[in-house]
UniProtKB/TrEMBL annotation:
Domain of life of the source: Bacteria
PANTHER family: ALKANE 1-MONOOXYGENASE 1
Protein's UniProt name: Alkane 1-monooxygenase
GO cellular component terms, A-Z: plasma membrane
Cross-referenced Pfam families: FA_desaturase
Amino acid sequence: MTTSRTGDPAQAAPPQWHDRKRRMWLFGLVPPTAIVLAVGLVWAFNLLGWQAVSPVWWWIGPLLVYVVLPILDRFFGPDGQNPPDEVMEQLENDPYYRYCVYAYIPFQLVSLVLACYFWTAGDLSWLGVEGGLGLVSKIGLAVSIGAMGGIGINAAHELGHKKDELERWLSKVTLAQTFYGHFYIEHNRGHHVRVATPEDPASARFAESFWAFLPRSVWGSLRSAWRLEQARLGRMGKRPWSIHNDVLNAWLMSVVLWGALAAVFGWQVLPFLVIQAVYGFSLLETVNYLEHYGLLRQRTASGRYERCTPEHSWNSDHIVTNIFLYHLQRHSDHHANPTRRYQTLRSMAGAPNLPSGYASMITLAYLPPVWRRVMDHRVLAHYGGDITRVNIQPGKRDRVLAKYGAR
């Protein structure tokens, strides 16, 4: 007689799930430590007598963003792993993942200080450099530090969505480098409310180039953050021009940081701090541009916008950029669950997907004709060819409707 083992709990239990990216999240520390790597490469190349080539490593930031990450995304492809329901709580509460984000901040600050040293040092003979760095190398270093700061804004984004006061404070600290502290207010209380509507400065419109979007998003987000804080403080009976204003106290962190660096290294660091800040927040805005391009929440019978759903964010599941951006590419789940920690974000059914990872799409965004060739037909396909359901750039609306045929 054969005994059935169908009811055996040990046999019936599903295999234990594990996060195959668990240790990979440490690669998220590559951007804030890239300058240290660059210094080592410059020294090694100079030692080998390759002085003509060694300065290229001061541009390690853009090399990482525009070359290395897109190549790795193409090579390794999509992730494909979603955490199941039964592990979500355990995964959410695992402190290891938040420490991976926390670690970004000290490395970021150390690299910023190191950059200030290289911007102002007059004798770098120990590095094999005659005198100090040349202007092109200094600018390359500023752009590389800006890349670190731009990716750091994403770390701040992860922290700023949390309810823990320490994490919110660390978010502001991380934003201090790029002087973009108002992002902490506007993103959480502005963008997440108005996403994929014409009223949102951080949602790109169909036929709007990145170069038109950039100033609209930068200034629109700044105005929105100030108005949000003004309204909040007004309800509390407080004036906006006070330390209680989160825009002002976040900017104060930047003033203190930049002032301390200028006091230690001299005013000569200030132009390069400006360069890195502008490049850093522009990198963030490029990501903003591609995340909701052309997508529109429709108005309901009540006149209000429909709820934000997975179809209102462009996603990508390419594993390498996922690691470097803490699953930011799983953007639909992030908008559905803003306080959910990055390790538990999932790819969602029904969400539109970009043809490649965010890192690859950033370069396309800089080239409007190429961007539109790649993306416009995808936006139309997402809405079944109905151009009237698309978030269109107002100044080009008539032309777009005529071209694609309003139904």
